[in-house]
Every structure is written in C-alpha cells, then in structure tokens.
Amino acid sequence: MTHWTASDIPSQRGLTAVVTGTGGLGLQDALALARAGASVIVAGRDPSKGAAAVHQIRTQVSGADVAFGLLDLAKLDSVQSFADGLCASRDRVDLLINNAAVMAPPRRQSTSDDFELQLGTNYLGHFALTARLLPLLRKGRQARVVTLSSVAARSGTIAFDDLQARRDYKPMQAYSQSKLACLMFALELQRRSDAGGWGVQSIAAHPGISRTDLLPNGAGASSVAGMLRRFMWFLFQPAEQGALPTLFAATSPQARGGAYYGPDRLGETRGHPTSAAIPPQALDATAAARLWSASEELTGTVFPGTPVPSDAHQGVRHLHAP
Length: 322
Description:
This protein is an alpha/beta fold.
C-alpha cells in the first residue's frame, strides 16, 4: 500500500461503476475509473454539472464509457427513480461509490422528505440508494460498496433522541453525525453481507482534508470555513490526492471488506492511502443495528436476507421528536 497512486488501479474493463457527485472527489473517482476502462455512471442532481463532468472525462480519456444519471439524494423519490432506471438498463453493478455530500450549512435545512439536510443527503439518501441497488450489486463481479466518511466522524455522535437536529442544530455537529453514520453503515453493511451471503464487500474511506467546493457550497464562501478554504488553500491537498483512499478501497486487491482507509500523513489529513483509525463509537454494533433499523423505517427501504438483532428497534419511537 506504500505510496499507492491512481496508476496502481488494476484494469476495470468490463465493470460498471456508479459514483455519486459530479465534482470534486466524485469527478476524480469517475475520471480514474474511466481511465482504467470501467463503464462509469456519474450521478448527481444538476444536469448541467453532470454534462460538464461527462465532457471533461471524455476530453481526458479517449473512448471513455461514461454517462450522467439524474439523482438527488435529498429526495427519496429521485433515489428510487434513479435505481429503477438502472435496474431496467443494466444487468449488474460492480461498484457503488457513495460520495456526494453537503457540509455545514449555517442554518438548519430540510430535505423534501423532512430530514435534516446533511443526514438526509450524506447518509439516508445513500442508505436508500444502496438498498435499491442491492439486487444489481449481488449480481456484480466481486462487487464493492465504498462509502465516504470524514475525519469529522471522530467527533460525531448519533443523537437518537434528536436525530434530525430539530431541537438543537449546530452545523458541524450535524455534519459529524452524518459522517459517523456513513462509517457505521459501511461496517454494518459488511456484517450483514457476511451474514446473508450477499457477496458484496462494504468498505469505508475518507479523503483527509481536500481542496473541493464542499465547504464553500455548504458553509458559504464568506463563512470562516469558506474563507479558510479560499485563502489558506495550501492547507488542503488536491482533490485528485484526496480521492486516492476511495479509489484504493474501490479497486485494490489489497482492500478488505469492513475496513476503513484514509491518508497516511499528518493525522490522516493528507498523503497516500493507508488503514484509517476507526473511532470507538463507530464500533458499537448495537448502536449500528439501531441506526440501521431507524434508517429502514425513515427511508422506507429494506435490505432483505439478514436477521435483525432483537434490540435493533429500540429508540425508533424517538426519531420524530421535535
């Protein structure tokens, strides 16, 4: 794994990959996978940005097999429509990268399904997407699901008594919760794949601190965080570097199901892919089962085929507390 780069990606020819997000890390993931020969579907909510991403990839990769798919993770009906279209047009999916995210809007916002925006987009939308695509993934060739977490997950907690931050919204606290949920989901998905014999590897990754538009788009260009991103840009590694842990998790024969990968330097903020430290709270299997059960209820999606722990439903009644 020492100094692994995109040039180490093995051939992806004949494989179908779905990447959520049309810019930043998602674009770098899609570009590298297309370069390695994969058939790539770039999924996002903005058709113009999607078209620009497809054009950029085709410009840089001659003969790239890449297409845009309309997907708004903040709308469960859009998630279902995207998955239904994919199930109708593809016989399998070999790789799903749950990448797209929103970060730290200063005021609480809601998705169309009345979820707190960060939890709804970063976590619940991807939870539902993975559930909807599971039949195609189970037909995939050594299929993998890579879900993006963040260094922010280290400070995250799952507030089961106020999951949607209706009573107490703090931008970074909500973001940290959403990214902890993504990490817990990745680990729990591997446990359930093993128990159910799904044959799908679930792996988590994080990009360290990378130079993308996530901060300016979420917190705002004039926010402290946005100004830091703009004027202290040298503190952030390039997006193509930040994408490496995800690409390692997605393609390397060395990557393991149930593992977590991030950068290898300066407290996992930059560098080349390595095994990342999993925060203790992400290893709580009882909380993960509880979160899974709550997520199925909230999104109306079910991953069939694995037994649910008897305590998994505890606390679900609190999810809609004001």
